[in-house]
Amino acid sequence: MPGARKRVAEAGPQTVTISFAGYNRVWAAWIGDRLERRGHTVSYQRWDPQEGTPLTDSLRALALAPGPVLVILSTWYFQMGPRTQAEWNSALTEVVATDPGRFAGVSVTTDALPPATAVFAAPDLTAVGEQEAERRVLTRLGLPTDPLPAGTGKGPRFPNDPSDVWGGVPRRNIRFTGRESLLNDTYHALRSTEDGAHVVTLHGMSGVGKTQLAAEYVYRFGAEYDVVWWVAADKRAVCRQRLAQLAPEIGLSTGVDYGERLRATRIALRRGDPYGRWLVVFDGADDPEAIWDLVPDGPGDVLITARNPDWAQHNSLLIEVPEYSRDESVAFVLRRAPRLRPAEADRLAEALEDLPLLLDQTAGWLNDSDMSVDEYIALLDQEGIDEDVVRVSRDFPTPFRTSWSILLNRLRETVPEAVTLLRLCAFFAPGAIPVRLVRDLPADDLPESLRGLVGNSVSWSTAINKLRQYAVIRAAGVGDREIHETMPEAMGTVPGDTLYMHRLVHQIVRQDMPAEDHDELIEVVRRALAAADPGQPTDSRMWPEYAEIAPHLRWADVLQTTSPAMHTLVLNCLQYMLHSGEYQAGLTLGTRAMKAWKEQLGDTHPRIWDLTHHYANLLRAVGDYAHTEALERTAVVHLREAHGDKDLTHLRAASGLAADLRGLGRYDEARTISGWVFDAYQELLGEQDARTLNAQNNVAVSLRLLGRYQEALDLDMKTLIERRRLLRPRHRWSLFSEVHVSTDQRLLGRYNEAESLQAQSVRVHRSVLGTDNPQTLNAEHSLALALYRIGRRREAAELFTGVLERSERVLGEGDPDTLRFAAGQSCFAREHGDIDQAREISERVVDGYTLLLGAAHPFPMGARSNQALILRAVGEREQAYELAEQALAGMRAAVGPDHPWTLGCAINASEMRTLRGEVESAARLNTDTATRAADALGRTHPLTLSARIAAAADLRALGDRQGADKTEAEALDDLAATLGPQHPHTMAARARTRPYWDFEPQIV
Predict the structure, then answer these.
(1) What is d(CA 437, CA 667) in angstroms, rounded to the nearest whole number?
(2) Dihedral of the CA atoms 601, 607, 612, 613 (nearest 10)?
(3) Axis crossing angle, helix 398-414 with helix 503-511, rounded to the nearest 10
(4) By three-state DSSP, how is residue 254 classified?
């Protein structure tokens, strides 16, 4: 009995050495913490005796440690080496039994151990609670068991207690082998990172076991976390949804919208409230650009698995995961295929170059096969695979393909349904495959070869279980069902709705596909994707469904069919990509579709014009206005000739052409076409049709770009009211109308009204569309500008910065929206932030607009005027003067002398003239500007008031004090009446600070 064993320690503080297998590190950490809290010193010794070293020598070396040695007994402890049970019995009898006062043990397994382990007199910790386990450890070590004093803090979790929140973690791999240094390196890397940046990426080529390594890390170190959450990160939409699912698990009270839940989750993790000890694992995050913004910061840890080392650019430490060492390979193969001998395992490892994934799959197959390792290797030789080709490569390891060809041949002979399922999956994208879409099809839509498989739960389970048995696929669920490593054993139980197939397996299956199966199965997948189309691509509530469908279009080769359902699916996906901000994916699909459909249908088929419309919208979103103008003009000419002016398809193309002209800065032409289109829609469809309202909206956009702000506001307000009534207040078009109305109000100087409307609109935008949607970014930017004009600088600064950072990440630095946001950020930084930052951003904006739109476009002209103010602020007056004059001349040529943008450029240019001593020239310019501004915008518009204040300064500089005082007093009275006596503009004018004008690029 353990109680009869001599105790190994005396009273008082002790030094205790804990010897443990890496697999049981969690027990070592907990026991060590319990001892250290009682004043004892703990030394940790991971047990990993070197092969070839006698066990007796390793145990005697362990006995050299000071104080008692506590051995944590488990099957893993005795598998290190590996050593036979006879070797262990002999070594324990020779070393431990002869010095029982130095060794103690505790058992953390219910498995049978070598009989000689009885010398440890180890109490069992597996079926007791934390307090009893602690008492047994202390008793075995002969240490006092008095309760700990209160307030000793929180230590590692008791291994038998689950984490408060545990989700999605794969089942522990009982055959996990080696990787001890990698696990320790990962742990210490996470511990050594700075606060708020606990991110480590395990990266390496496919098949090296990154996911298995991450899962083992979770199990070994999971006791140190209160929350452990596993996220499949191969697709952004799924990743977002999975993170959102954490919100209710950690007790956050949110609505059902997953965008709201996602935001709440990220805030809670960042604050460490309610849990500060959390671990989030992003598995398969091979595209950092797609999800890096979803990686949380805060007091917890983030572990990422990826093939892509570019995570280093996103504040992550990298740990490369190499192939197994040969010893690791042999040990792993022997666990995976117990029937093999060590020498056979070594030869297999050599043939497969120690790649864990290949070892797992081939050893698993060999264990169930009659084929010997030598026959298997000979078969590889018969296939003509020499040493160079067998060697694992980053692109496509040939031995991997060969092993899979052998496996597929066996599957064809034994379970042909499994091969059919594999081939079906090959027409979805690799990774997560939503096979439920096929199972949702009516039986009549399935070919005979699939009906028995898809409609029969037993056949379905048999096929999946066989594929999983050979590690061909993993099973996954949907919604709140987690990715898991096990399937129900009962044959009548239907496995998960989603399967996971490695991309290399996927490639092999496609390459080996017989032609007859190809044609039959691809049609099934196409019908499944079409049936899954929600049919509402502009509704943000449907976007997760489109995000799941879209990746599979390419693999189902949907562009090579003339099916109307397939055409509709492609067009809907293009709309989804436009409205959700997935521009590049949309452009890729649109480009391929245009080429394929023209080859199939000809250049003038009606579907081509539908495609042209959506493709042009995507091109326009990224600022390729010249390209879209050519596309839309071709469409307009053909459709007008074929169907007449009042044809709806022609009107749609004409509306697109007007948008292109707005993008190109040809605002008068755009206004003319938009007005004509609006009139035509009213005549054909009436005022309450959504298309009529869109046309009305476009007229207002043209008016705003022409500087006719009041007319734009009148139309935008009318559109907003009618959209709210016809659609719904939370519809994205209604929300965009709120942005337009707020913009008009701000441009008219009605800053408080603009802020009030936009603040509420931003909240709804975030809820409905998400924080990273381009429309949400536009709404937040509009709010930032309103706050800036009001004088609420701190709030504006936060929004300006956040919007620009997210836009650069989501859309890219050269995107038209990003350039607009950068222009606003630069102006704000010039006045209230970092002048060097303002200059750097401003130069980028000028260069970006020039590259995108050409030097003569109004936007680069306005950006130069902004930059001139920065150069003036840093003392480069001559350069500022030249740039301001260029901007004024260019803007006048682009939009005319009476446009507000030209008048604003004139205000800035007049200041530069004054600084050069050209006071009379400045005065003439300001007098003319004030007159034109009053005519165009009204006497009390902020821009007009700025020109009047500047004119007063010029009169004073010319010696006309009486005229200056009169002009200034009148302007100050109007400023106080318009903006308020305490408004920053009023106070600056009263202090005789010369006014300036910021160019704000507008939505086109």
Answers:
(1) 47
(2) 180
(3) 70
(4) coil
